[in-house]
Amino acid sequence: MTAEPGLPFHVTSCSKIKQYLTLKRYNDLKEIRTPSGYSLDQAIRSGIENPDSNIGIYAGDMESYDCFAPVLLPIIEDYHHLDPGWSHKPGLQEVVLPDLDPEQRFIRSSRIRVARNLGKFPFSGNMTPDQRLELEKTVKHAFRNLPEKLSGTYTAFTDLNEKQFHALLKKGLAFRKGDRFMDAAGINRDYPLGRGIFTSRDNIIRVWVNEEDHLRIIAQSPGGDIANVFNRLIQMIKALGDKLDFAFDPKKGFLTTCPTNIGTAMRAGVHIHLEKLEQNLSFLETITRDHHLQIRGTGGEKTAVEKAVFDISNARRLGISANTILKDLHGGLQAIIQAEQKSRSFSGPGLG
Questions:
Q1: Above 50 in pLDDT, residue 2?
Q2: Is 269 annotated in some ligand binding site?
Q3: How far apart are CA 120 and CA 161, in angstroms?
Q4: Catalytic residue numbers?
Q5: Can you give the CATH number for the domain in which 58 is found?
Q6: 271 is in an annotated binding site
């Protein structure tokens, strides 16, 4: 493969960075360094090494969003389908919503997570080993000072032997090195140094430390009571936010390593069993699209649907509040369950 004259991209690349990083923009930005020393060439390294990247650029710190705004802003506006005058919408309040599936006939589990970075540290792809350890030390101190109802245990991956680590992996508690896109961006460097997981005593909350972002705060529970899961997540976000300075911009919201996650930086979704709608995917896609949701495989993005269990989650993260995201999910799930019930009833006794 050859690169276009003056730009370090393969001709076959179809990434957003290839689309929006013109030669003029590259020349205007290539000498700029953020306060932590991050450059445009570092930001686009993953896109250069992986021509099949969808986006192809990562932020190395919160200042990247200002220093490289001429290319990052159009990518953000394109990816998030934003209207003129867009801005982050605040809104993170506890909610009261009915459990749509109290008998757990359809929804297997509910999971809501947010990404957060600390403003005083470079982001994951731009950290030294000492900075990773210092960040881990900082968040461990915050974990130790949580309210009793949120308290739990932090486990550093470097304290585990191979058998212990794989036991956590099997439970979905630990995380491996990231994919080749993250590897090229430097996010996997020094693994497993500085990485670990906090788990609350009730096992509903867990926090991954130093994965793609500094913190991945997750609330998960069996069944479909998404309001309870959301409220527990909010409690942890606010408790940690009182002790940690999250990277935040009034217009862009919470700043993340990948520009696709900024804004609320939230993914709210369920694993749901849809044996009939699996046979009518176009109808399922229509329902999810109408409620601003997206369909993913059982194991998440780029995975297959196994045994008719779908991952259904929000499609929007920026220009919309977290509470609106949850209401979209709740309304969409209600419509999906009704459609699945109707399809099963048409099958007749013994045919579903």
A1: no
A2: yes
A3: 32
A4: 113, 212, 216, 258, 260, 267, 296, 301
A5: 1.10.135.10
A6: yes
Strands 266-273, 309-314: pairing kind = antiparallel
To the nearest 10 degrees (0 to 180), the angle between helices 322-347 and 226-241 is: 160
Please report the sign of the dihedral spanned by the C-alpha atoms of residue 155, residue 217, residue 49, residue 25: negative
Please tell me the distance from the alpha carbon of residue 259 to that of residue 73, in angstroms, as a whole number: 9
Look-up of token digits 């849809």: 274
pLDDT at 344: 83
- Structurally, the chain folds into a number of domains equal to 2
Tell me: pLDDT of 352 over 50: no
| pLDDT at residue 1 greater than cutoff 70 | no
3-state secondary structure of 109: strand
Query: Residue 111 annotated as binding?
Result: yes
Q: Are 304 and 251 in contact (CB under 8 A)?
A: no
- Comparing CA positions, the residue from 213, 323, 301, 309 lying closest to residue 270 is 309
* Residue that is last in its domain, among 79, 104, 128: 79
The predicted pLDDT at position 347 comes to 61
pLDDT digits (tens, 9 = 90+) for 39-94: 999 999 999 999 999 999 999 999 999 999 999 999 999 999 999 999 999 989 99
The pTM of the full predicted model, rounded to 2 decimals, is: 0.93
Q: What mean pLDDT do residues 273-288 have?
A: 95
Looking at every residue in the chain, the average pLDDT score rounds to: 93
Instruction: Look up residue 134 and give its amino acid.
Output: E
| 119 marked as part of a ligand binding site | no
Domain holding 348, by residue range, is 264-352
CATH code of the domain covering residue 290? 3.30.310
| Residue for token pair 């101190």 | 141
Q: How far apart are CA 271 and CA 273, in angstroms?
A: 7
